[in-house]
Amino acid sequence: MTDIKIYLKQKAELINTYLKNLIPKGTPKELFDAMEYSLTVGGKRIRPILIIESSKAVNPDVDIEDFIDVALSVEFIHTYSLIHDDLPAMDDDDLRRGKPTCHKVFGEAIAILAGDGLLTYAFELISGNQKITPDKLLKVINVISNSVGVYGMVGGQAGDILENFKDIDFIHTHKTAKFISGCCQVGGILAGASKKEIENLKNYGLYIGIAFQIWDDILDEIGDEEKVGKKLHKDKEKNKITYPSVYGLDNSIKMAKDYVEKAKQEVKYLKNPDILISIADYIVSREL
């Protein structure tokens, strides 16, 4: 049986190797330095991994070299979102993965532009792919745009920062789960999945995305900072609503596990679902 923690770490290292060759260079140097700084401070690279593993789940013989640039594009988008999340107008964070946030190093204006640059460069990467057919790339662009725009991540972030907006399910479904779902759909599209398989991957991504966020809320509440590897209780300090604060701790744990089971049901009949199933289980096995 695959040790999913080791497997994900190995895949992240592979993603980092590819990533180095795709980081743009240019002038003004400060802008490109800020983009590179934020891309390379670390991270689990779960979104590009999900594109790769979702494609393999429906077509085990798929060649990831054909679309590695498309898979990497979502890491550019994810990094843009983190830069903007950390800004004083949003979450006002000084550290990201133990290092000073982009605006702390390069200033707010360059940080904003670095985020903008990463977001738009992602679509340059996708549209510049020469190995995937244009009709597939168009579907990919549509899915990603929807999952990270006003009907996805941007809408969820808006709900998260509005003090009078208290719909926790909307916030986390849109801010986190829709992007993860989009990545899973993209993997299916690139591998030539059927409409039904893409729907299964879409639902799988939504369910693991919600489970991931619920478990993060639980870890923030009762986790061990040393084991989790980041500062905890930030949501409580900022008076943000969380799943435990709305549904209670025990119910939140049950909800996360139920979403994982629903996710596994969605993909278990795909040709090669084992890694996706292991990823789902891993979400609620992270140490408290």
From TrEMBL:
Domain of life where this protein originates: Bacteria
List the GO biological process terms: terpenoid biosynthetic process
Q: Which GO terms of the molecular function aspect are on file? A: (2E,6E)-farnesyl diphosphate synthase activity; metal ion binding
GO CC, any one term: cytoplasm
**Any idea which UniProt keywords this protein has?**
Isoprene biosynthesis, Magnesium, Metal-binding, Transferase
Matching Gene3D superfamilies: Farnesyl Diphosphate Synthase (1.10.600.10)
Asked if Transcription regulation is a keyword of the record, the answer is no
At the top of the EC hierarchy, this enzyme's class is transferase
InterPro entries registered for this protein in UniProt: Isoprenoid_synthase_dom_sf, Polyprenyl_synt, Polyprenyl_synt_CS, Prenyl_diphosphate_synthase
Q: What is its EC number?
A: 2.5.1.10
Please give the cofactor(s) recorded in the UniProt entry for this protein.
Mg(2+)
**Family designation:** Belongs to the FPP/GGPP synthase family.
Q: Which PANTHER family match?
A: FARNESYL DIPHOSPHATE SYNTHASE
Q: What is this protein called?
A: Geranyltranstransferase (Farnesyl-diphosphate synthase)
Q: Can you name the source organism?
A: Sulfurihydrogenibium azorense (strain DSM 15241 / OCM 825 / Az-Fu1)
